[in-house]
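Problem: given the chain below (224 residues), write out its structure.
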Amino acid sequence: MSVCTCQAKIGPSILNADFACLGDESKRVMEAGADYLHLDVMDGNFVPNITFGATMVKSLRKQLPDSFFDIHMMVSAPEQWVDDMADAGADQYTFHLEATDDPVALIKQIRAKGMKVGIAIKPGTPVEKVLPYVDQVDMVLVMTVEPGFGGQSFMADMMPKVELLRQKYPGLDIEVDGGLSPKTIDTAAKAGANMIVSGSAIVKSPDPAAVIQELRTVVQKYLN
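Solution.
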């Protein structure tokens, strides 16, 4: 494997947090040492669930003015939400390759609004489909569950995608999302993932700081 030149980053997903206390929950995990906040936006069309939109992101931005917001857009027609999310305070706009007919135009649209660009692929999408766009984005997200719901089991058979990306792009931020916990982190880290989205394992832990530190330590072990 090529030597990775990137850093370990742990991003809690607040999908399974108490939405009535989302601001407090988000502050709690950031204060516990998280590197960024992973915000799952679902439209009930691209995935069979609905979460929140730009209004919620804007509210969270007021409470967390300095936190990095990675917005995971599990939506159809991701082009139509770029302006709203930029205005709401998103730092990185992560869209699904499967949801757009013109990834290059969308990447340019996101950059024009001053945001970083992430591109995500579902479990059923071959990793080769994303390779033409890797040089144009900041991060590739390999889904390790079917997008749409929190609390699913980690799909270890997605790791060859991560391994291929890491071998080809040593400096690329590679994110994994779905079922990541202290029990599964070794598999993901060994494959080359450096950005770890973890929902239930962090949010529902009585000691989120300890979980975040454990995840980071394992990832860092394989990056060095």
